[in-house]
Amino acid sequence: MIELTVSEDAAGQRLDKYVRRALRDVPLSHVYKMFRTKKIRVNGLRGKPEQILAGGDKIAIRGDEERLLVPAGGAAGGASGGARTTRRTFGILHEDEHLLVVDKPAGLAAHPGSGIEGATLVDEVRAHLRVPADLPPGEFKPSPAHRLDRETSGVVLVAKTRRAMVRLGEMFTQGDEVRKAYLALAKGKFAKSAGTIDLPLSEHEQTSRSKDRRGVNFQEALTRWQVISANHDASLLRVAIETGRTHQIRRHLQAVGHPVAGDKRHGDFPFNREAKARWGLKRMFLHAFRLEVPHPVTGAPLRFEAPLPPDLLLVLGRANLEPPPGAARSAPPAPKRN
What positions carry a catalytic annotation? Predict the structure, then answer.
């Protein structure tokens, strides 16, 4: 017999989802067979898959515990396993009961995925917060509330509680309460000092089957840009996006002939080689500089800024471009050139 107690954080879930997490190696068909044969009970009564759990509910699952439960992912004590040895590479901009705001370095993937090796921001955050490896099923695990490309540095919001995650998810989906500003180094000099790119973008994850049936699905996308400093070779931009399409800034700047410097996917490859040789640019010059959002629980207005990393400041110095006020920590001196 397996006995579980629903925490306040895990409350509000359907019983079947909670049980599926608890028995994550058990085939789904067998889980629902256990429901049909009355082997899952809540507070002594027969459990129904669709019923909503409350904090303090007692769940009993009849069966062989050793066969049903997956062994914990580490040694006894949970957090004493590999998670604690994960080195933190992000900076901390803010932390409270519900929210952790980090300055993510370039090269650190936000989430695990195909082709992702090594620790991710998710791993580092959970190690920093000492999240037990054997957390009970249904318990919320702190996670980034939005995505930032692997090679993009800057501000990322991490939800520490389910309540914060739900509200942040709503805000990022709707978009009208979130203000995001980026700094990007783009190829060439713009004809104007500011402008708007209003260009629909094809859905990034549309399947081939969907394209065959419905054609390419285009999504509204709006990007506003302003030149901070420029010369004949490149322009430093402050960029704000009012929609959150995949690679939106990179795709939009490419579309108007000013791709982001160092972008290996949507960029200008000869320009990237030149930027690396002349200015020492070794990665994509795109930085999530500022994020403004109401607190997901209190509603208080929040504003976070992540200064430009030293490697990007060095590139600006070598390119004779000035960063915006407040964007720099302390710029390293650019080496003199003959």
Answer: 149
